Amino acid sequence: MKKVIFSFMLSGILMAGCATTNYDDAHFNRGFNYYEQGNYDRAIDEYSQAISIRPAADAYYNRGLAYDKKGLYDLAIEDYTKSLSIKPNADAYYNLGLIYDKKGMQDRAIEDYTRSISIKPAADAYYNRGLIYDRQKLYDRAIGDYTQAVILRPQHGDAYYNRGFVYEKKGDYDRAIENYTKSISIKPAYDAHYRRGVAYGKKGLSDRAISDFRQACDMGYDLGCKDLQEILRNK
What we know:
Elements: H1 25-36, H2 40-53, H3 57-69, H4 73-86, H5 90-102, H6 106-119, H7 123-135, H8 139-152, H9 157-169, H10 173-186, H11 190-202, H12 206-218, H13 222-234
Helix pairs in contact: 1-2, 1-3, 2-3, 3-4, 4-5, 5-6, 6-7, 7-8, 8-9, 9-10, 10-11, 11-12, 12-13
């Protein structure tokens, strides 16, 4: 069974020093501090006060983050969109992509990840767009995005893992094994060992498959234990 690894980390808050100095900085700064403390309701109140004095991109963006953290996605979309209407911001497009992805609006998410990438190419935006292409079975596009993710962040073990799984689905077991191995070297995990074991099995390399299934089993993965027992019975 595939374990797809998602990246739903929001792009960060704009610090107080980034605020436009023409509006009431005190509200913006207090909003920033409340956000950092996890007090999102108070942060929203302070950013709303700042916006009432001067509707600025940074305040809309940060208030959008607070709404996002509270799961108020429609309000977050509204604020990110207002922020973008004032000033282009790769992070706002990225966060919109995350929301639309969570809401199941995959094509809209792709659009926003693409806009984010056009402003500031980033590993997470490529990776998340690749996940959507993967789900849509657009495997060559997914491979392309996972590849860009590992170019920008060579230690992106999840991108190697998911690229390996795409190659496995395409029947390219050698490349699948290569990517699973790289993922394991960065972040050992039962799913990568298991999938590499499956790929070895497809190539008829039962001893290597046994080794990976055993490793996955030892790491607590029941399916690894099941396949290990089955391959040992049939050996």
